[in-house]
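ok trying this again, last paste got cut off
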Amino acid sequence: MKKNFLFITVCILSAFLFLLQLNCSPKKTMSNDELIARGKYLVNFGGCNDCHSPKLMTPMGPAVDTTKLLSGYPASQPVLPIDSGLITPGKWVLTNDESLIWAGPWGISFSANITSDSSTGIGAWTLDNFISTMRTGKHLGNGRMILPPMPWDGVGKLTDDDLKAMFTYLQTVPAINNRVPNPVPPNMITGSSKKK
């Protein structure tokens, strides 16, 4: 009986010390290249290109236009009329063939330019701006609310290290000067079923 008790005590103590060692081991600091690679992985896995990159139509459907990677809704592209009767609560949410513009009860939202361009993208942002935006759902962490379909609440649950990796990678994406239109509130949508 004493042997069993001693054996169990040694096993528990060994497991405790092993777990303690895991928690106390120094955290490996990623090199800048590792940070960029991790960020690229997260941006691609997270589907950021689905909404932030213009598309080319191919025989297999839309494909990311790599010459306009993550540049958002093209400023030169007109906004087609939207039947505002379709986007009331409980009805439809609409998007275009590139998933760069979305319309719903919140109004019209345009996918942001998240390239490193300092005047129309996020090139002038700080890491704190980026993390705060993802955690609060507010532009630059204190501005207007970020509109659907941006899953800021899910992205905001990533660790600081993962958000830092994403931001570091986005700062390496070639700058594309593309000033995305401002959101359109629901009362400003004009369309075929909007009453005058």
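PB: full thing came through this time. The CA atoms of residues 83 and 191 lie 5 Å apart.
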